[in-house]
Every structure is written in structure tokens, then in C-alpha cells.
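Subject: for your reference before the review

Hello V.,

The reviewers asked for a structural picture of the protein, and I figured it would be easier to keep everything in one thread rather than splitting it across files. Below is the amino acid sequence we used in the manuscript, unchanged from the supplementary table.
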Amino acid sequence: MKNIISISIVLMISMFISQIQAQGCDAEDPTDSIAPAKIKLFGFIQPEYNYTFSDPAESTFKFRRARIGVRGRLFEDWSYYFMLETSPFIGGVGSAYLMDAFVTWDKYNWARLSVGSYKQPFGREVQTACNALITIDRAIVSDQLVVPQRDYGISIWGGNVNTRLNYAFAIMNGSGLNKVDNNNKKDVVGRVTYKVFDFMTIGGSFRYGYPKLNNDEDSRTTYGGEILFDINNLHIQGEYIHDEGAYDPGADTGCGSEPLALGEERDGAYGMIWYDTKWNLQPVFKYEFFDQDLDLKDVPYRYSERMTIGLNYYFNKAIRLQVNYQANIETVINEDNDKFLAQIQVVF
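And here is what came back from the structure prediction:
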């Protein structure tokens, strides 16, 4: 199953070459224009309940995210974006900290320049705004291999939600948030997507950098492919990521997940399907796998699969309830670690 998914997605990408979403956590809205000197306050909170079916069982209430930010425009061609994370359960810092802060010169739609702190332009799921995720958790491969998800750098962006072609290219530190660059090299990251048909979007991402402390020799190469089908109310999304070379074991993974030990080569993929019903209910199914070390086979805890069955209910545009059951599948030693997650989100 793993090889079939990997080969299929790579073939799709090689035959063609959705659109790149905003660098931050506020989803791009084509109807929301900010006039000069106007400031928009925005944010969202995500209180959550987790239950792990272990022995003994574990359960807790927490905040997944609690974010507040401002964005606005200065003169006609300059905009700014600033966001804080205030949840004590994410990032491991226990207090509010800066997530996104960048200034953009956007006179030309096909050459918008941004400088500051923001998400790496890699992968569809990572680029999806946190308040627009279809499942509560991102895929394991997104959290473990697109690391750090946020960084400091300069980038150029082209296209928007209304264009078929979108691209992004960034030069970044490679060391993550709240850190200066830890070597003399920079990471190069890029993503291109193209809407082949009105219902089908395909894309590819690439990253090359030097992630280790005070090390300008050991490099890391990451590439990924993605596909999205929007067929009326039916949506199908898939993504494959391959990563090899050096890595920083202390780098921040996505949204507070625990970093895993990685081999020389690692990869993973996910496939997800969801449907928008007329009752504001959105059933979703997601299958994923992650291989921490492609050179090791039949080794406990190095390869995992996960299935997520979920249901989203939209009270209105601002309030959403998500319920997920995660079935974690170990192929060597079985472990009782399935999870039930429930989250309510309020966006303002």
C-alpha cells in the first residue's frame, strides 16, 4: 500500500507540474481587502479534549491553539502581518510567543516580496491555515519532515486564490523560531501548484539546507508532491514527502508534536477524503504512513500507519466542532495508543 501511494503521487507530479495559501494562520480570503491604513484584528481559540486508549488510559483538557494577531496595510503597496501564540500547550515554552511577523511589498501579484517570520512554503497541509484543517492533527509526515515549519527569511510569492498557477520561493535560516541561524548556510525552499482542471490541482515542493549546529557540510534534501480534487461537495487530497540527509533532533516539529529519531532516508504520505453535506456536517477519512528510516525494516516503532475517522460540524462560519478517532497501527509490536480527540473552534 505504501509503495503504491508513493509511486502514484510522484507520477502525477512528474506529468504536470491549488494554490499557495497565506504564509500565516489567517486563511486567504479573496473578498477581504484591507484599505490603506486599515487594521484588522483576528485570531482563533481551539479548546480540546484528548483521550488515549492506553493502559492506564490518559485524558486531558487543553488548548490546541489560542492565537491573536493583527494585519493591515500601509500605503497602497505595503502590508504587514503579526500573530502571537498564547496557548501554554504548544511550542513547549509555557507562555505567549511570536509566531508570524512579516512585511510584504505586494504591488505586483506575480512578485510579492515578504521578509520576516512565517511558514516555510512547503506542502499543502503545512500551508493550510491552522483554522482550516480538515482533521485536528496534521499528518505525521507533515509534522516530522517539514521541520521547522516556521522560520525567518525572505521570499517571493506569485498568484492568489483566483489564479491557476501559484508559486513561492524562500531563503530561510533553517533553525526555526526564536533562534538566530546556527551556521553560515541558508535553506532554500520552494513550492509550485497548478490547477490543471477546475476540479484538480497538483503541486510540488522542494527544500535544500544545512540543519545542524555549526555545520556547513552536512546537508538535507526534501521533496514532496501533492494532489487535490474538488468535485462539487466531494474533496480528495493526498501528499507524499521524502527526506534525506542530516537533521536537527532538537528542531521544533509541527504544533508541539514530539520529534522522532530519523534515519538517513525517511518518507511518508497521507490520503484524505471528505464530503460537505447540506446539514453542515462534514465526514472525513484519512489514511497515512510514516517511515522514520527507510534502511531499517521490521524494527519496532520505526514505521507506523494511522487511520483517522472524523466528523466536523459547522454551527456557522465562526464556530466549528471537530471529533476524530485515531487508530494507530504498528506493524511489528502492537501498542494500545489509539486516541479520541474533540475540539471546538471559535474564529474572530
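For the response letter, the relevant points are probably these. The chain has three helices and 16 strands. The longest strand covers residues 58-74.

Happy to draft the paragraph if you're swamped.

O.
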